[in-house]
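Weekly sync notes, structure subgroup
Attendees: PM, AL, DS (notes)

Item 1: joint prediction request from the bench team. They want all two components modeled as one assembly rather than separately. Inputs as received:
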Amino acid sequence: MSMPFYVSPEQMMKDRADFARKGIARGRSVVALQYADGVLFVSENPSQALHKVSEIYDRIAFAAVGRYNEFENLRIAGVRLADMRGYAYDRRDVTGRGLANAYAQTLGTIFSSGGEKPYEVEIFVAEIGDTAADDQLYRLTYDGQVADEHGFAVMGGAADVVAGHLKEHYTAGASLDDAIRVAVAALGHSESDDRVIPTGDLEVAVLDRTRTQPRKFLRLRETRLVEVLGRRGVEEPDAASPEDALAGSGPRHSGQDDPADPTDQVSGATPPLEDPVSGEPPVAPPVAPPVAPPDSPAAPPTGPGQV
Amino acid sequence: MTDSRLPASFMTPGTSSFADFLGIEAPDLLPSRRAVPAGNAADLAPHGTTIVAATFDDGVVMAGDRRATMGNIIAQRDIQKVFPADEYSVVGIAGTAGLAVEMVRLFQTELEHYEKIEGSTLSMDGKANRLAALIRANLGMAMQGLAVVPLFAGYDLAADQGRIFSYDVTGGRYEETAFHSVGSGSLFARGSLKKLYRDDFNAEEAVTAVIQALYDAADDDSATGGPDITRRIFPVVHVITPDGGRRMPDDEVSVIADRILASRMQRPDGPAAALT
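Output from the run, pasted for the record:
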């Protein structure tokens, strides 16, 4: 009988985390920003139909980066959960914290179950209260960790570069117009230069507590963005991004091994992943089969129940 | 193995209907899935009575009286029987009040759920058909005396006009032209509107006409409540135009109701229509 290679749990988790992080970093960033009247979401998203930012409930919104089919699944689950809770109890009993917990449990379970591919997504769940001090912004990562964010947060793409720019320019309690300008400038910022993102490529939405309707989520249309942003110089669309081709699609069956795409189904001449610990290219597996302990041939020490 | 993730039904793509989802995940929350013991249950719970709707040149209005009855008893004086279904539509209910209010909540969630999942609103006919499906699922209880009969109205942005739909307990859906009424006082209200209605109403005239119709219904039907001038309780009126729907504030309704009451002091049967 064949015996599986032993992979230490640490190594397995590192591999899975590395896989998920790569998928997330391939997309474009989403910025969430607290302003005076609520929470603002800005993303560069040339697609008008495939949203990254969506409404979940009266005061709760959802933003995500990564693999579209996976976060769309999570979004629909969130809408169902919120609507069912609001129907069974009351609209006021639907909370962002409950939703964030459900997402965290789901992502965490999928990440740590060996048989499934981890989700390549990162999520914001935002909820606004009656005052700015009551606003909540949660960040959920692919492995189910929840972080409580304050002020602003960035995920996906070159998140650290965008966050660095925001750190310098963000002011708490800003007006909506100022917040939009800061967020758009941060998204266009990169280490080499600053780019003017075309207004048509921006996806902007707010949770605005000053709205009179119970549903506080609102998408800002392009005409409104043009008013706010004014003349900014020559617009430069972003270069083609892997997420444009990948949005909504499964793994590519290109027939070619692409080292930048850890999900491709081909293992060709190029090794798909470097070693997640050392950054070294992977070494080919040992040619000789591993030697089983002489007395216990039927018990490979890999089962999850083993100590 | 313990699995703490959301159940598979939450993550399954396919349906955009909240009622369908509830049927899979929590069927006991659906009003239609409850078994009611055999026998007539009609006298157990309060009944809502008269709802009136009328179109006008730029939209549609719906009004409901405020009375709920249990046999000969007035169960509630200020019940609300007309509810916004979404931004452009409104639903009024006659019949068993408890079931009807639950059905309205389900219908409101159904429309909002579809809107959030699909990113677009249902068409006016789509909304009317969903309501028909909810009513049809209640047929068993209707046969035991717990009937719910809604009136549905809204502004159809595609057709650019106000539209009214009536229903029967089997889920039959009928589009009405100009005006309609349901509930115990509906015969009188409809007769009244027949004489009062004109095609060129503006919003205020349409509101006046439906309140006149409710007054006539209350005049001849003991289960329909008229304007309560001592407690200042007036009909619930919703007005829907291309800009969306709103509930007319009580102080605006009271001005119109007071005007109607003043004219009825002179002529208790209301305005006289021309003979020819």
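Discussion: Chain B has a mean pLDDT of 92.
Action: AL to compare against the crosslinking data before next sync.
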